[in-house]
Task: inverse folding
């Protein structure tokens, strides 16, 4: 852990750096950069490690307190009158927001803790929605709940440029998507098709949702004012796309990846995705290699649409070619994202690509060698591959990330 | 910045207050009706314990209601209601458009099953009396087998179980009939499963099981409040005349 920047050091540095500049040891540009760096460090109250720790603790604290409020709502104490329950929502919600604003913007001495309180306020707002639903016995499939929660928090996330609030919003939107589409499908849609579970019908939907978020993230990166909040879109988008895309690499080709009845959702997500690419094309600062990425994402969308609408489940062993193709496409996608991450010095791409690379190798190892090797040999070789691969990959990952210089983002 | 921030917080407060105010207005101005129910008990992650309510008007016999139309999943329907002597309401018809001059409740079609079976079982008790019974479903039990039927206070079957020495009191103290199956008759009919958005009744954590376990033979009704367009909201659950809100 580094030390906090004290005022004595800052004053001494300013004096010294003037001398260094006069003696030609540093250029005026470098002087300004060094002073700006230490000024920012002092303003944030400490070095990067400490700041991240405070942010992590604040988020964790907010989430724990928020979960506490949600659990209080869930317990539904019949001894507490409705007015009392509502007071438990309204008073802490208003207090959290006010305290958060005070600490972060008015006094400004606890910016990260303040951000944590604002997140807590947003969590209590969500608990309030479900409390109202509970008081009035609204149906369990209350999909409008997450939707209203997300829509209520989203403007705040944009106003404050808070990644935590935006992440919360996007997660509840994804939950809403699942709840809403679930109610669109008849009960028999969830019956398994051979060994393939009925839930496989959600794979395409979340794959497209991931692409839409990914596209929105790219668009946000293209505009200076929104770049700071592009990460939640990209991280959730890429995780959603790769997470569901990974499922295509299994032998699920005896089932269905989507349901035509959900076409309004596929259409909306595809339009959102295309609009975000259009927005990216119009932006002033497009990330390097963006054209290739757009082409790559469009191909993925095309594949998802094909598997949703044109593909019908294959009988017997006709799946092998599809599984092989899906594995090749998945491996190619991992490589493309890794390459783009390296090209743009973007750690998220590198981390996610390596995560799914390891996951894929691990799962395929099980698929192919489980029957071939004796069990003991299988586990010994698997263990050695994982240990060696883990060390090599971690070294490579650190090397790649170490070569990036990315300013720290917060909230 | 400060004004915008507090305006957005005010917006969130207004959303919550609006949701409460709207529902409150609905309860105050809507028409209240009683519906017959039978519960089971799952759990909802967001909102704690709740009792799942299946209404008698949730499963409609299209043949008995003389309805010829075909229904699609998620289609909006209006179930026409008719009052019974005990002040509860039963289904008397189904309309796809808003009915006029009749009492109705708005619902959404879950599914239509063309080959559902209406079961008529004749049970011979140990004294030799024959009892015609109509369970809502049937499992693989054949004539000659001994069965215990659990009944509600109106003598209708709520559940049944094959008689086994290890399984004592399957009806948990409620009214029952035990005997030998004399006859099984299955009549095919068109079933329409309808959802009204009032299928969940939230109770204090841990209390759901109490309602579920104590329900044998109890008179269970739900009080719903109808909007002018027939949309219903659940107001209270009545167990043997005692209201839960």
Result:
């Amino acid at each position: 852990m580094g030390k906090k920047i004290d005022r004595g050091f800052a004053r001494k540095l300013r004096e010294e750096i003037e001398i260094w500049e006069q003696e030609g040891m540093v250029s005026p540009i470098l002087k300004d950069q060094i002073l700006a760096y230490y000024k920012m460090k002092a303003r944030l109250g400490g070095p990067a490690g400490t700041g991240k720790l405070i942010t992590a603790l604040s988020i964790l604290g907010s989430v724990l307190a928020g979960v506490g409020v949600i659990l209080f709502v869930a317990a539904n104490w019949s001894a507490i009158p409705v007015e009392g329950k509502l007071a438990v929502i309204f008073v802490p919600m208003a207090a959290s927001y006010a305290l958060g604003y005070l600490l972060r913007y008015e006094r400004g001495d606890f910016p990260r803790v303040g951000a944590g309180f604002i997140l807590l306020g947003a969590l209590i707002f969500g608990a309030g929605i479900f409390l109202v639903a509970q008081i009035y016995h609204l149906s369990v499939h209350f999909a409008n709940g997450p939707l209203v929660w997300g829509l209520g928090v989203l403007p705040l996330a944009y106003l404050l440029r808070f990644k935590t609030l935006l992440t919360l919003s996007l997660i509840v939107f994804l939950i809403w998507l699942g709840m809403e589409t679930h109610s669109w499908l008849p009960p028999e849609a969830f019956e398994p098709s051979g060994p393939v579970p009925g839930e496989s019908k959600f794979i395409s939907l979340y794959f497209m949702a991931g692409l839409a978020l990914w596209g929105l993230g790219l668009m946000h990166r293209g505009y200076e004012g929104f770049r700071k909040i592009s990460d939640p879109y990209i991280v959730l988008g890429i995780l959603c796309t790769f997470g569901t895309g990974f499922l295509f690499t299994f032998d699920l080709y005896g089932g269905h990846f989507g349901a035509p009845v959900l076409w309004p959702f596929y259409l909306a997500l595809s339009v959102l995705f295309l609009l975000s690419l259009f927005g990216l094309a119009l932006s002033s600062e497009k990330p390097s290699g963006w054209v290739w990425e757009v082409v790559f994402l469009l191909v993925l969308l095309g594949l998802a649409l094909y598997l949703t609408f044109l593909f019908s489940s294959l009988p017997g062993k006709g799946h092998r070619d599809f599984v092989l193709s899906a594995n090749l496409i998945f491996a190619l996608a991992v490589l493309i994202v890794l390459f783009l991450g390296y090209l743009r010095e973007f750690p998220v791409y590198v981390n996610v690509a390596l995560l799914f690379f390891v996951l894929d190798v691990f799962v395929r190892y099980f698929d192919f060698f489980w029957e071939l090797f004796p069990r003991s040999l299988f586990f010994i070789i698997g263990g050695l591959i994982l240990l060696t691969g883990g060390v090599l990959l971690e070294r490579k990952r650190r090397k790649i990330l170490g070569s990036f210089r990315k300013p720290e983002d917060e909230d | 910045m400060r004004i915008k921030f507090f305006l957005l917080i005010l917006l969130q407060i207004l959303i919550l207050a609006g949701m409460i105010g709207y529902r409150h207005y609905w309860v105050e101005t809507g028409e209240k009706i009683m519906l017959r129910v039978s519960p089971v008990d799952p759990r909802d992650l967001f909102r704690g314990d709740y009792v799942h309510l299946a209404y008698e008007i949730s499963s409609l016999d299209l043949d008995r209601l003389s309805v010829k139309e075909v229904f699609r999943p998620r289609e909006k329907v209006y179930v026409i209601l008719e009052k019974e002597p005990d002040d509860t309401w039963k289904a008397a018809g189904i309309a796809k458009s808003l009915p006029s001059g009749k009492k109705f409740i708005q619902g959404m079609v879950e599914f239509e099953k063309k080959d559902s079976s209406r079961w008529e079982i004749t049970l011979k008790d140990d004294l030799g009396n024959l009892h015609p019974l109509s369970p809502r479903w049937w499992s693989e039990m054949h004539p000659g087998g001994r069965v215990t039927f659990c009944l509600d206070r109106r003598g209708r079957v709520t559940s049944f179980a094959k008689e086994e020495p290890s399984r004592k009191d399957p009806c948990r103290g409620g009214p029952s009939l035990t005997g030998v199956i004399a006859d099984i008759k299955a009549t095919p009919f068109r079933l329409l499963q309808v959802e009204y958005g009032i299928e969940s009744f939230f109770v204090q954590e841990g209390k759901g099981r109490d309602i579920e376990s104590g329900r044998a033979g109890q008179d269970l009704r739900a009080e719903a409040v109808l909007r002018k367009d027939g949309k219903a909201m659940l107001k209270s659950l009545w167990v043997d005349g005692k209201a839960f809100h």
